[in-house]
Structure formats: C-alpha cells, structure tokens
C-alpha cells in the first residue's frame, strides 16, 4: 500500500530542474475547520472494523451520541478475551485477535461460540461504573441500525444478530432497534447505484444492491429527514489528522482524514455531525474515495445540515489491513474514552464544534 510520504519520482525531479522551479515537499493539509457544530446529536456508523469502532465510540461518549449504525459488526467488547487482564502487551494483542477472528467474525469456529450478549452488556455496565465509558443510561434512548448480508463471508449474520441482543440487554427499547438481515448483500456498504454487483465480497466493499443504506441509517437515527440532493454540492475537505493525536504517533491513524461540509454548514453554525468509520482495507490509501464519495452520505448531508466526518486509518506491521482497533493493538484501553483512536476522534469533534473567526 502506498505510504502518504512518497519520495519524489525521477520525472518530478527532472520537471523541477527543467523549469528552474523550486522543489519542495508538499505541505500537510490544514486542520479541521471550526464550524460551530452541535455535539449533542452526534451519530456514528461503520462497516466491519468500522462497525465495531462505531459502537465503541457510541458507548464511550454516550452523552453525545444519539444513535449508531453497525454494518457487518458484532457487539461492543466482543474481542476482549476473558484472560486479557492476565496477559502482557503483545500476548494480549494476539489473544484478543484470535478471539476477534474466531468468535466475533466466523460464527463461533474453533469452539469460541457466538458472543454472549448478556455477559458483554454486564461488562459494559461495570466499565461505565468505573467511569471508563459514559453511563449506560445515556445509551438507552439511542436509535440503533444493524445490517448483515446473506452473502457476507467475513462477518457472519449470527454475529450481527447478537449485536441486537446486546443492545436489548443494555435496555434499548425494541422499537429503537432496526435489524436488516434479509439482504442479498455481501461484506459491503450498500448503495442504490454505486460499487460492485450486489452480493460481491471484495474491494472497495461498496456494492449496488438497489438500497440507499446511507439514507436508511440516517433516517432511522434522526427520524424523518429531508430527501437527499440530486448530487453533492458541499466540499470534501482533506485535513491533518496528526493535529488530533496529541503526543501519540503510533495509534493507527493516517496523516490525513476527510470531512464533508455542506454549504449551509460553512455559513451557519449548529449543524450536527455524523462520523462514518470505514472498514478494513477500505481507507483512502486502499480504495481511494470509494467510501467517502460513493456511499451517498454527502447528498443526505446537504439537505439536512449534517457534517460527515470520515477519519482514516493507516496500515502497519501489526495492522496490515488498516483496521480500526477493536481488539487492542493500541493498548488495553481500546474500548474506553482513553483509547488513543477514540481520544483523537473526540478532539476532531471538539474542533468542528468550535466557532471560527
């Protein structure tokens, strides 16, 4: 996968010399714009590892997040091994990773069994009591959208159904939970017209199943909203993610992220924010703009005063597919408000909420 820091090619160097122009490294993109966004009606969504991160951010910051959409993902804390507190760093990562693959993706292969939703809910309650995540009471009124395709060969449907059981165990009312499990989709974000043929499993993990998933999940979370614009009219803005990492540099985030800002949100404060987490091997370095621009979020954002944040991961030796951390490769706090990736995304929200000049 191409690294964001690419050495100049011979052709580029020659071009500089022939034109006698100065040759300088490209400067990083600017930080996020300060738009005066409101934070109390933030929502999240994600596919695959992004689905797990959407749920993790929702529970960590339940006082801000009013709903989430989990596409091809299991319940919060699924990958945390029962023995994780007894194992040191690298061993913890491998132990949780084995649990993630065999017990939270492949439908209980290798005798892991499907996730115990009630037990995971109890663990979340205890985590909230310790102050590691917001109180569970802040999640009970949330709207939850869950989706699994019958042809998904990466995260089995029974895992996603357990996610519904998890939210029921937390106390989310049945009418607030939408579970779509009768689709012919594969492991993908689903659209009306964009991407691979419906049922395919492969990059860019966006498929045409004649279903507007972006609109469906936003409508479920926010209730009746305005129809989408025929085409997006706002701006996709690249921003410097390193500005939000604090003192941490190796937390799995790419140098650059993307935010979509409708025209109405550039000129007026008070827009809401939706955070869309891509899946493994679906970041911009891997599939370009397929997830940010072809999933349909921008058209719905235009007509509903909604800023869409697309944070980006990067690949590494520990994380070659560029997944979000749902098994602990950034450390033991990966499920909490102190998780490095969750802290960084929260800082991004805070910047969007600041008022500009």
Describe the structure.
With 357 residues, the protein is of the alpha/beta class. The chain is built from eleven helices and eleven strands. It has helices at 10-19, 49-60, 89-103, 117-129, 157-170, 213-222, 263-267, 284-287, 290-294, 297-303, 340-353, and strands at 42-47, 65-71, 143-149, 177-183, 189-191, 196-197, 206-208, 235-240, 256-261, 272-277, 306-310. The chain has an eight-stranded mixed β-sheet with strand order 4-3-2-1-10-11-9-8, with helices on both faces. A three-stranded parallel β-sheet has the order 5-7-6. Strand 1, helix 2 (49-60) and strand 2 form a beta-alpha-beta unit. Helix 4 crosses helix 5 (157-170). It is globular, with a radius of gyration of 20 Å. The relative contact order is 0.18. Mean pLDDT is 89; it is low at 1-24.
Summarize this, please?
This protein has 357 residues and is of the alpha/beta class. Helices cover 31% and strands 16% of the residues. The protein is globular and about 50 Å long.
Q: Provide the β-strand percentage band.
A: 15-25%
Mean pLDDT: 89
- The tally of strands reads 11
Task: Using the alpha-carbon principal axes, give the shape.
Answer: globular
Helix content: 25-40%
Instruction: Give a short account of the largest sheet.
Output: 8 strands, mixed
Structural class: alpha/beta
**Between the first and last Cα atoms, what is the distance in angstroms?**
39 Å
Question: What's the SSE pattern?
Answer: HEHEHHEHEEEEHEEHEHHHEH
Assembly classification: single chain
The poorly predicted ranges are 1-24
- CA-based gyration radius: 20 Å
Helix count equals: 11
Report strand order across the widest sheet: 4-3-2-1-10-11-9-8
């Amino acid at each position: 996968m191409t690294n964001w820091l690419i050495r100049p090619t011979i052709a580029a160097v020659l071009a500089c010399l022939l034109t006698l122009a100065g040759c300088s490294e490209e400067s990083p993109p600017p930080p996020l714009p300060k738009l005066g966004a409101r934070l109390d009606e933030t929502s999240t969504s994600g596919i695959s590892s992004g689905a797990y991160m959407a749920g993790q951010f929702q529970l960590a910051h339940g006082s801000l997040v009013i709903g989430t959409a989990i596409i091809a993902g299991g319940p919060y804390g699924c990958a945390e091994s029962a023995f994780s507190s007894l194992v040191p760093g690298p061993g913890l990562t491998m132990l949780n990773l084995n649990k993630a693959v065999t017990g939270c993706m492949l439908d209980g292969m290798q005798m892991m069994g499907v996730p115990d939703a009630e037990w995971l809910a109890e663990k979340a309650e205890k985590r909230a009591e310790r102050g590691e995540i917001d109180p569970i009471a802040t999640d009970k009124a949330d709207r939850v959208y869950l989706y699994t395709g019958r042809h998904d060969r990466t995260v089995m449907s029974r895992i996603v159904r357990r996610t519904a059981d998890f939210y029921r165990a937390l106390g989310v009312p049945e009418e607030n939970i939408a579970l779509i499990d009768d689709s012919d989709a594969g492991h993908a974000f689903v659209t009306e017209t964009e991407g691979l043929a419906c049922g395919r499993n492969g990059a860019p993990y966006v498929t045409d199943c004649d279903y507007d998933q972006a609109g469906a999940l936003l409508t479920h979370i926010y209730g009746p909203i305005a129809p989408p614009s025929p085409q997006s009219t706002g701006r996709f803005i690249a921003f410097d993610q390193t500005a939000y990492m604090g003192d941490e540099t190796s937390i799995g985030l790419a140098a650059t992220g993307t935010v979509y800002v409708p025209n109405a949100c550039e000129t007026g404060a008070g827009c809401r924010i939706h955070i869309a987490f891509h899946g493994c091997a679906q970041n911009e370095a891997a599939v370009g703009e397929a997830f940010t621009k072809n999933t349909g979020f921008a058209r719905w954002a235009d007509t509903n005063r909604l800023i869409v944040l697309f944070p980006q991961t990067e690949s590494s030796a520990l994380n070659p597919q560029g997944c979000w951390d749902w098994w602990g490769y950034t450390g033991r706090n990966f499920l909490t408000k102190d998780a490095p990736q969750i802290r960084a995304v929260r800082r991004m929200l805070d910047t969007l909420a600041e008022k500009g000049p």
